Queue: 3 jobs
Job 1
Amino acid sequence: MEVLIQNIPFLLQGAYYTLLITLVSMFFGSLIGIIVAIARLKGNKVIQAVARGYVSIIRGTPTLVQIIIIYYGLVDFGIRLDPLPAAFIALSVNNGAYLSESIRGALQSIPKGQMEAAYATGMTPWQAMRRIILPQAIRIAIPPVGNTFIGMLKETSLVSVISVTELLRSAQLLIAQYYSYMPFYLGIAVIYWIMSTVFSFLLNKLEARMSIYE
Amino acid sequence: MIKINGLVKSFGALEVLRSIDLQISSGEVVVILGPSGSGKSTLLRCMNGLEELTAGSIEVNGVIMNAEQSKKERTKKVREARLHTGMVFQQFNLYPHKTALGNVTEALITVKKMDKTKANQLGEKMLEQVGLSDKKDEFPSRLSGGQQQRVAISRALAMDPTVMLFDEPTSSLDPELVDEVLTVIKELAKEGRTMVIVTHEMQFAREVADRVIFMADGVIVEQNEPEAFFTQPKTERARRFLKMEELEHREGVKR
């Protein structure tokens, strides 16, 4: 127990990276998700097929394999990434596919009349999407996107295999040093749990705030 | 104002409009009547480009849309035509995430590029016109159907269209809320606005229309001044329709 308390600053640094990777991959994942969702709904046949292929490949392969391909596999093509950027890229691309599905569902749930009303006042498709459809869809997408977010927080532990010293790997390093497993593993479990709980709470707040118009 | 020539609209194999010719002049209030499925809503939706034309052409205030245009040209013309038309929908279609005032000012800001203060001033004036000044900060979910539809009317009016299109504006309202919406529309008619109204409210049609168009099975069966149409319909089809409507109305009153 004592060694755990002594090393909490080191673990918190790991937690910082876990959080950083989560936030970065959620941010870029959301951008990718919105673009892919719109591409699948409004794009021409080729664009739709590409978007569908992307989602299918990402959802049909393990995240761990995707991370390894980005970090080790791309070296064959002369692309040598540092662990952290590799983690950002792998998880953003991974996240984008899952988020695009939530966002697509949300976009489809907006009644057709909303788009028509916007068009009838002379808006362009882009204006109608940005001002009328997306704000409503994002509100609807918050619960599923929140789940993805919490999932991503935990999934970041996978990037420990490419030697990113996030929370899991910081525990592993300490274990190698002290030859004691349980305190560190339990310690990081508690930290993961606290982070998930805090984010669930914040997401609920956000959802409540965005539903003032209901 | 509006010139429709040889308009055909099909959905797949189903021909909803079969060669419609119609002219509407400035200041005229035209009411379109007909049994459901007669194509009247589709005709209205063609006028502001919500439906693509299968054949024929529509001219709205000098802007011509026709079936031969390329997709790009069509998109451009449709947008132009929409700036001349205001549309009121059966389901209101207010933006639920915006307040009453936000609904009215949205297109003023995004489409007309008006600055926000000015848009708000105009928006408040428009809401006042439909008697909803005190509701300007409410979200649509807090408004009754009648109030929502009045907001929708001022949203369309705010863009200062040359012609207003009403697609069954009272059909999804509770009976006791119908009158407040019809009153607003009658006011607009008095102001001399050009309007095309699809409705099932016969009494209202009779009061407000300069001309009644009766449609059935995708064609215009007859058109006439309202008094003449309601008292001496020329065709058997119209007579049958009016009788049915009268029966339904009586039953409605009894209930």
Note: Chain B touches chain A through 28 residues (CB under 8 Å).
Job 2
Amino acid sequence: MSELTRISLAEARDLLGKKELSSKELTEAHAAAVEAARPLNAFITETPDRALAMAEASDARRARGEAGLLEGIPLAIKDLFCTEGVLTTAGSHILDGFQPTYESTVTANLWREGAVLLGKTNLDEFAMGSSNMTSHYGGAENPWRRSDSNAKLVPGGSSGGSAAAVAARCALGATGTDTGGSIRQPASFSGIVGLKPTYGRCSRWGIVAFASSLDQAGPMTRTVRDAAIMLRAMAGHDPKDSTSVDRSVPDYEAALTGDVKGLRIGVPKEYRVDGMPAEIEAIWQQGIDWLTAAGAEVREVSLPHTKYALPTYYIIAPAEASSNLARYDGVRYGLREAGDAPLVEMYEATRAAGFGEEVKRRLLIGTYVLSAGYYDAYYNKARQVRSLIARDFAEAYNHVDLLLTPTAPSAAFAMGEKMDDPVAMYLNDVFTVPASLAGLPGISVPAGLSADGLPLGLQLVGRAFDEETVLRAGGVLEAAAAFDAMPAFVAA
Amino acid sequence: MAIDKATVYGIARLARIRIDEAQAQSLVGELGNILDWVEQLGEVDTEGVQPMTSVVEMRLPLREDAVTDGGKPDDIVKNAPEAAHGFFVVPKVVE
Amino acid sequence: MLIEGDTGTWEMVIGLEVHAQVISEAKLFSGASTAFGAAPNSQVSLVDAAMPGMLPVLNRVCVEQAIRTGLGLKAHINHFSVFERKNYFYPDLPAGYQISQYAHPIVGEGTILLDLEDGEVREVGIERLHLEQDAGKSLHDQDPYKTYVDLNRAGVALMEIVSKPDLRSPAEAGAYLRKLRSILRYLGTCDGNMDEGSMRCDVNLSVRRPGDPLGTRTETKNVNSIRFVQQAIEIEARRQVEVLESGGTVVQETRLFDHRSGETRSMRSKEEAHDYRYFPDPDLLPLELDPAWVAEIKAALPELPDAKKRRFMEDFGLSAYDAQVLVAEQANAAFFEAVLQGPKGRRDPKTVANWVTGAYFGALNASGVGLAEAPVDAEKLGGLLDLIADDTISGRIAKDVFEEMWQTGRPAGEIVEAKGLKQITDTGEIEAIVDKIVADNPDQAAQVAEGNQKVVGWFVGQVMKATQGKANPGVVNKLLKGKLGG
Ligand SMILES: [Mg+2]
Ligand SMILES: [Zn+2]
């Protein structure tokens, strides 16, 4: 095992900056870790040759005195980001063999800042899932194990491969995307930091769409500082995305002052859901205590429509997905089945073979709620409730600056658990979905371990475009928690 | 809301996803459960509430009317399962 | 127009949906070119091909063109409109949805004035105008088992302009399309070429007993010339009457017009299980128009055919018919006004109108050239008219001169000079000729004396013949009347 994979992204950056380390060394160590971590199935595609070439180019730039924000830093990329000339699958059979001729804006931003591509990480098919088990390439495995069992656990989802890769020390950071919790929940399950920025902060251009009004890219790292560094490189206005906001990108790292004195933190009472495990409740209370001790004012707030967030989400996201995924029709890229049959049969056979069960289920639900006679009862109703949910947050932010909640209602579960009841699986996102519906920034920070030794995360949700306060308070939580437990599997 | 097999077949047809008898049967239950669950939204009073159009507070940006793209037919058909003479090729469409 | 059936009279009720291709450099949501005739898939962006992760960004000029057209149709401009997705699977629709407008179009109700054959003017309502993407092109004849798809057209901006069901005959439908095309061309928002497909028409039609409520309608898709629209209406209306009179019911459906067989037929394939599942496109925000922008576009609108026609009638005393013919094409109206304006002030509007709509347009048609390439320009035609006005030549001679001008491109004065066509206005010279002809034809002179006025005309002809048409007809007439006492 290399020490070079144990350091944080910020530490690596500083060593590279002082020329005590080359990107080539750093990248070789990580490429070896990626290979060593194959049992986790965290990567769909490894790109060691490209990584090495990028690292050498980075070292050459640095020698010329040019260095971006992530100069020489090896990263893993969720396989939902289109990468030029590199297989991009979205975890689906239907994109078999698809090699984009273009680069997503977010990844292009990362390369512009000097980062190095280690490979493309596993994910739930089209980001639809909370376990990574819906991937056509098989589930990624959580590097953590319960203290009393060797059962394989899920890393959470949909950005499960990214979470596993970062937790297992294969990459200094990874990109994720979050539609209803797909960055924050796997971060919580895998003991890492995951930040979903404000909707509109990172460009969606070149990211395979799941639900356009919700999808947002963000960083997954081992420290809050690393998330701040990575977000700065990823974010920015993109004229190719009509929902990308034209605002300058702050130096998020500078926001990490460690000072939350006087910051008003809300604890939404509706998040105390029935049947919440005691240890989740305990870690939440722990978070309240830490922030209070640091000088923040914690108070209860009300988000009255919280219980409707999940059903709202499970109408809006499938509806948008049913339309977004219509383009996978066997004509322009990816899989084609029954190519000699009449057109409609070709479509139906291709989509039947190309999509997995969960994706089909959501496409059918989405098709149904948009269909004639049901639009108002389902889709339009959900959009109205979404307005009410956003209004709840706006009202809360009249009184507080941030909200503190658990990230997920449980620790990581075992592969195979919860798999037969879609609705039970959907409940994983109960604490993350409301902020997604309101487009607000949220972070998950590892806060402690469950009784059986699994990481638990706390979530902070901020005002729109106030990632700085989210990161600042996240940093305080991180310092207080001093989370230094290591997963059972660390790439060596 | 109960949903029957014919409805499941109808939706699958609209979504262009072939399903077999066994899938249709199990989807009746799965989709029915999901719909039952989301129907709790019916409880919410949304009288006079504007449906959310976008969470971003901004105006729709407009692009300039300039030709900035195209001219790469090879890229366009590069990933196609079937292409000929620069066209995408699909099974014969009968009007 | 009423149809006489076996069981009585029927009235047709027609509404037209026109898809007009917006004049713009780039597509509605991408930077690919809209130009015609390029190699397959060469004017396609990743967005148009619906590659994974691609996003639409709206073209400002396409929006401006829609606003301009709405203003030209005296329609309500909606300052809030929404792009929605119309979902269906088809190989020439790469995303599996068309971005269109549905519940909230950019333009609401307006009106259009029809100029009918009999000079009557009728008002027809516009229901709405919305912006949407064109589809790609499927080629079915390249391979026996395959269809080829070219996405060059995919994503080009269209305006769908929907009339109210106010039309009652094929003639009115034709007048509507001609007027709409004229307005679009004046505005520069669509070139209106139906044979190139930049203007396409769907016909909604039902029949009923006069005074009854509306019957069930059919929609006949993609009829691509005004003549075919009129034929399709005729044929479809008769088909519906036959169905109803034989006790059947008209099925609400989409039909296709086949101009070769002269039939409309059901497009059941297209009809099957259509449920477009419209919903607001989450990749785009609602379109909110700045009122100042709309006002700016309005202020810059050109004079449109109706206003121009009114001005031509009021200021120049033209007939409704002449004014109509002149304003139908903006270039023609401009040509008329150019001829009207002489170096020494305004020429006589009626003479100018007669010459422009008569000899001049006739020559254009016969030679098949456009105004821009015509051998006689406004200045030369004006020069000819000035020679008539100052009695240098007669109107009859002018016709010959004009023909010569058209052949050679030479100015009128030069031709008149070179060929000695100047009118004889010297009364003495004409009188000598008149006297000789009267003396040579005593029988005819006697007939005039007996009261047969027609024979005066024969004498005029003889004099003109003797002078090769150069004698001033007024002088000839006056002299003859004096001599013959007619
Ligand atoms: Mg229509
Ligand atoms: Zn249309």
Note: The longest strand of chain B covers residues 87-91.
Job 3
Amino acid sequence: MTPRPLDRLLRQISDTEPEEITCSECFDFLASGVERELAGAATTPLQARLAQHLGQCVVCREEYEVLRDFVRSAPADPALDAGAPATAPPDSPT
Amino acid sequence: MKVRSNSDWLRELRASGEDQAAALGDLRAYLLRAARYALHRRWGRLGNRAPADRDQVAEDCAQESLLAILRRLDDFRGDSRFTTWAYTFAIHVALVAARREAWKAVPLDTLLDDPTGLARLGEPASLDADPDRMARRAEAWAVIRDVLDHELTDRQRQALSALLIEDVPLDELARHWHSNRNAIYKLVHDARRRLKARLESRGFPPGEILGLFAGPG
């Protein structure tokens, strides 16, 4: 169930840090962040800052989750051909 | 498809002739696959209501992300596979396009000018089995409302209302205001910092806020 707006605000206030990475910085660390998560690597300070941003920013979080699920579902070096359909992902709420 | 290391990708994309053409062709195929995946995530549930030209949208996203990657090759730090880094571009471009499609018919001016705005955040439960907790919650809520109503700028109130209540994507708000994601994120971050600081100064540490408002008690 989607949290109420008030609950989301309270959560966001509670998780606010004095310094937070920007969306551009988040974008720059998405790939390494996803690979570290999928590898089960230990959390680094940078990974923690990335996670904090993802907790505040819905669009960055969506991009992280889609990247993670795509990388997880795609072979490391898929034999692609131009006519191949996209990997069928699970549907998600729009 | 040729298997390439990170350095192979960089070298061949910066090369010329057949090596570069092959690398570009392969990278474009990877990007198209990622863009299709991202669009399917957004539009898969829509069935016939999904845009009819979704294949063309995916092609456009692959092309736009390919050009962005070529502009930013020097930014690749090598702390992930090159292809994972490249996918971030395709997925970002595809999701921005999908959000644009979903919100293009929504009049954001009307929505942002709604005078009820943050009043529609909701109210915390007014009853509690514990009278002390009920009183603290009422006090914390009064602090929050005071900051929302009197200390934030109009733009901050509009942004919070749009993002929290209307679920407007940050991209769309930035586009509507001729701004960018970083600027809107900072606008909201400043508002959150002010709310948190005021709560702390009134004796409500962050760890207590969620517990205070959780459930009817």
Note: Residues 23-39 of chain A form the longest helix (17 residues).
